Amino acid sequence: MTRAKICGITRHEDAALAAELGAWAIGLIRWPGSARACDPAVAAGIVRALRRRVACVGVFVNPTLDELGQAAEQIGFTHLQLHGDEGPAFCGEAARRTGCRIVKAVRVASGADIQAVERFHTDLHLLDSSAPGQRGGSGQAWEWSLLRARHSTVPVVLSGGLTPENVADAIAATRPWAVDSASGTESAPGIKDPERVRALLAAVTAADAQVAAA
User: Fold this and answer.
1) How many CA atoms lie within 13 A of 91 on its CB side?
2) Can you spell out the DSSP letters for 96-120?
3) HSE of 100, CA atoms in CB hemisphere, 13 A
4) Are 133 and 153 a contacting pair, CB within 8 Å?
5) Are strands 124-129 and 156-158 parallel, antiparallel or unpaired?
6) If pLDDT is split at 50, 70 and 90, which confidence band does 149 have?
């Protein structure tokens, strides 16, 4: 079964819809440089209401360990997604200090990026597209065939330009542990389109059924 993460959540109603429709996780961005940054008080309310139903992923770019510890305690994230230049030792210490599962994100421009993330023994690897000046949410897909050179056994979350229209092809091509969509399920940055969220999750379910039948 391919899981689905709906990222870039900024509103309780969008988070609740994702949970109701069967998403595995919601992503709450805590990097102020993002157009989808979620207010900490709003994030805390969403996590309190939904953490028993979905994984609640806090998304950070180059945070300090103290910032992660504070966010884990005050907001209650179950997972921390590290989308910056954090190294393996930092990721290990973040897990130790917070008790959260760690998702190391990497922007993929070449096979070298796939190989570089293999030194991270985190709970999950998130593979995103590489767009100049952006840390994610670019709406651009990357060359999925680069995954053929991957050797790590860490489960993969496939991200980058995934939409209801192409997520089935992505699943068939890469067989990821999970898929992640931000811009592909929006009507505007940080505002989800309920029909696109519903369509993406339905497409994931249909893709799994097709793979199983093959």
Assistant:
1) 24
2) HHH--EEEEEEEESSHHHHHHGGG-
3) 30
4) no
5) parallel
6) confident
Residue of 38, 128, 180, 208 marked catalytic: 128
How large is the angle between the packed helices 40-50 and 65-74, nearest 10 degrees?
50
Q: What are phi and psi of 166, to 5 degrees?
A: -120, 0
Of 7, 56, 91, 100, catalytic:
7
Q: Considering the entire predicted model, what is its pTM?
A: 0.94
Kindly report, residue by residue over 178-210, the tens digit of the pLDDT.
999 999 999 999 999 999 999 999 999 999 999
Place of tokens 């689905």: 4
Average pLDDT over residues 53-77: 97
128 is catalytic: yes
- Please check whether residue 193 is in contact with residue 211, taking contact to mean a CB–CB distance below 8 angstroms: no
One-letter amino acid for residue 23 of the chain: A
Q: Which residues pair with 100 in a beta bridge?
A: none
> Is residue 201 a contact partner of residue 21, using CB atoms and an 8 Å limit?
yes
